[in-house]
Amino acid sequence: MFVRDATVADLPDVMNVLDGAALSIDVETVRESIAEDGTLVACEGGERSRSDERPGGPLAPADGERVLGALVLDGDHVAAVAVRRRRRGQGIGTALVEAAAERRQRLTAAFDADVKPFYEGLGFTVETVDEAGRWRGTRSTDG
Prior knowledge:
Layout: E1 2-5, H1 11-20, H2 27-35, E2 39-44, E3 66-74, E4 77-83, H3 92-103, E5 106-112, H4 116-121, E6 125-128, E7 134-140
Parallel strand pairs: 4-5
Antiparallel strand pairs: 1-2, 2-3, 3-4, 5-7, 6-7
């Protein structure tokens, strides 16, 4: 499993993963995030070679790759993170958040109570928000 920047070619797979997790995020938001190098995908499979690399840009999807999870950033805010149902609990979401933290000095997120332990385990400082059952978290990294 590896994490890379998403490309426009990944958009259908990213939306499939997000929809499968019942996350409400529209395709234009994801498309804009991809264009701004703010969407990450966790993948498996595919053959990679040096010729797949593009200086200053994301790797193109390799033949045979399967998107296992996706994380969408809106600036420094985690707008969505999701992993395919059968692959949950295998560290894929953690890898996505850690990769995002390498790209940003600060991350924020808003989430439901059932994923609070996930964010706390990743070093987010969490607090309740006014909405019942909702939390927000902040993680700062030492640059």
